[in-house]
Write a structure and sequence with these properties.
about 150 residues; alpha+beta; four-stranded antiparallel beta sheet; 3 helices; 9 strands; about 30% strand; globular; signal
């Protein structure tokens, strides 16, 4: 009887953890010198942002739509649509114009009411729940998201 109760408790905890992991809201974490922001829609579409604390590294991101993944280092990369405004590969920051575009994008992004990502011609809507509470402004002292330029 005790083994059954323990097994049911463990199974309940595991299923609760998986529900939280696929919760459709913005989450952040930190590990091994990298701040991470991510969101998914519970159907495998997601946006992941990596912000290293290392001054020689810079922001990177990847987006997955319908099983296809692109990262910000890819060319042409992926598109982010914030409240109807289109940003092509906004996390690619390896030029002056790219860095300026990233700063403009980030300001709109952290206030997004509607968010979509586009990979290889396929578009997915992502939740914006908690985005303004979780994703920090670029000028916040705890934000390590910097451009390459």
């Amino acid at each position: 009887m005790k083994k059954t109760a323990i097994a049911l408790t463990v199974a309940g905890l595991l299923s609760a953890g998986s529900v939280l992991a696929s919760s459709p809201e913005w989450v952040s974490g930190w590990g091994m010198g990298i701040t991470e922001y991510s969101v998914n829609d519970g159907r495998g579409n997601e946006l992941y942002i990596s912000c290293p604390d290392d001054e020689y590294e810079h922001v990177k991101a990847y987006a997955t739509v319908n099983g296809n993944t692109k990262n910000s280092e890819d060319q042409p990369g992926f598109t982010v649509i914030v409240d109807g405004e289109v940003y092509d590969n906004p996390f690619f920051t390896d030029c002056r114009v790219c860095a300026a575009n990233f700063e403009h994008f980030w300001g709109a992004f952290i206030k997004a009411r509607e968010l979509q990502i586009k990979v290889d011609g396929k578009t997915a809507a992502l939740p914006t729940k908690n985005i303004s509470k979780v994703v920090l402004p670029l000028n916040h002292p705890e934000n390590s998201c910097t451009s390459a330029w």
